[in-house]
Design brief:
The radius of gyration is 29 Å and the shape is elongated. The protein has 281 residues and is mostly helical. The protein has 12 helices and no strands. The chain starts with a helix and ends with a helix. Helix 1 crosses helix 2 and helix 5 packs antiparallel against helix 11.
């Protein structure tokens, strides 16, 4: 809108100047049009240049970064309202987990590891951790807030460990092995459940992730024994066995951290059970 306004206001003068220059060089109509077009845009740039920093700042406000979208609910002014601040942090972590879940699904299905997206998750988790450190819980009557705060710290820990595990194994090489299709399907089932997460997901639904993770652990134990037996019977090379076991453990650890992160996110710990819950980790 800015450039057309400039063109409309300056057209008579600009047209006269362009024609005089074109007459001087004896240019044809095509060159006159090209000169007018170039002069018009150059004028717009010159007039706009003093205001570009202000415009850039406004543009950043209008179009938030991806990390700001994931942590948009966090406001440092909430620190005086612990219950509200903790819920804002919980909802932010929920969005971050869904985001990480999408990246994990892309990795498991297609063997694509997008490091820039994982770095984004790493940064946003750090932002939530800093936000939680500003919350001051009251001494009396806030036991539920304490349990929520503890669970959110557990969630961050498991999301970070989930993130760390994703970077451990070369995805294309590891996921080429068709021996672990059942394990991959269990991971994808957990991720499908993660994609359906919202802040109204009932706490009792945490058993869905627990069941999938337990099945994955049982699969890992049984399949690991089979691999070792095949190696002992000289049906597999030792290097091949080690590689397969590593991939199997890798899948199991991803499934475990998906479960634990989700469990703490949707089912906050209460003080009376915190030691029992920690023992599960």
């Amino acid at each position: 809108m800015f450039l057309p306004l400039i063109g409309w206001l300056t057209f008579p003068v600009l047209f006269e100047v362009v024609n005089r220059v074109a007459d001087w060089f004896n240019w044809n109509d095509l060159l006159r049009l090209a000169l007018f077009h170039t002069t018009f845009h150059l004028l717009g740039v010159i007039l706009f240049l003093p205001f570009y920093q202000t415009f850039a700042r406004r543009l950043l406000k209008w179009i938030p970064s991806r990390s700001e979208k994931l942590t948009r609910l966090l406001d440092k002014n909430m620190s005086q309202l612990p219950t509200v601040a903790l819920e804002a942090a919980r909802r932010s972590l929920l969005e971050i987990e869904r985001y990480l879940g999408n990246e994990t699904e892309l990795l498991v299905r297609e063997g694509r590891l997008r490091e820039d997206e994982l770095t984004l998750v790493d940064k946003t988790l750090s932002d939530v951790r800093v936000f939680l450190s500003t919350i001051r819980l009251e001494d009396e009557g806030k036991q539920n807030d304490y349990g929520q705060h503890l669970s959110l710290l557990h969630t961050i820990d498991h999301l970070e460990r989930w993130l760390y595990v994703l970077r451990e194994v070369e995805p294309v090489h590891a996921l080429r092995d068709t021996d672990f299709l059942a394990a991959r399907e269990l991971i994808l089932h957990e991720l499908d459940l993660v994609n359906q997460l919202n802040h109204h997901t009932p706490p009792e639904d945490s058993k869905l992730w627990k069941q999938a993770s337990k099945q994955l652990a049982e699969y890992r134990k049984a399949h690991r024994s089979e691999l070792l037996e095949e190696t002992a019977a000289n049906q597999l090379e030792m290097d091949q066995t080690i590689q397969k076991v590593q991939v199997l453990l890798w899948l199991d650890r991803i499934g475990y951290h998906i479960w634990r992160a989700t469990r703490h996110l949707i089912k906050p710990t209460v003080p009376s059970e915190r030691f029992d819950v920690n023992r599960e980790d």
